[in-house]
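Weekly modeling sync, notes
Attendees: AB, CL, MP (scribe)

Item 1: holo prediction request
CL wants a bound-state model with 4'-phosphopantetheine before deciding which constructs to order. AB pointed out that an apo prediction alone won't tell us much about the pocket. Agreed to run with the ligand included and paste results into these notes for async review.

Input as submitted:
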Amino acid sequence: MHRCVCPGSFDPVTNGHLDVISRAARLFDEVVVAVLVNDKKSSLFTTDERIEMLRQVCAGYSNVTVESFQGLLVDFCRDRGIPVAVKGLRAVTDFDYELQMAQMNHRLSGLDTFFVATKPDYSYLSSSLVREVATYAGDVSALVPDLVLPRLAARLAQPS
Ligand code: PNS
């Protein structure tokens, strides 16, 4: 049984995330999408909301589950016997930090990181840019799963 984790903040899930998750789901028997609970960072959506959106958009993949985690990714993976993290690399600008994290994680626990090159269509895409564009009523309909759109609109319409 080959298992992997796809970790991230997913605030909110984008089509770029889904691309990486779906490719991991083809390559591994089981994929755990791990949503970081980060009390130090303010987020647009609560952890529960992010998990619920991910569960809905991943419902078509029978081998994908969604969980939250706090603390170190390596501890989450050790507890579940997960030996590999799968992450997307969008551009060379991702590489420095991703390589540092991969090497640190490997040093901490032996967790390996497999990188998938994101589709060129998504090489500029991030949750933070989606939030920013949507804040000013820009069109993000091609960038996030359909069910995210009304939730983004509703959340951004609320006074902060
Ligand atoms: O979607 P993001 O915010 O780019 O995801 C980053 C994430 C959650 C994968 C990364 O910050 C992480 O693994 N955080 C957990 C804390 C941890 O293990 N830090 C040490 C990494 S070497």
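Recorded for review: The longest strand covers residues 30-36.
Action items: CL to compare against the apo run; MP to circulate these notes.
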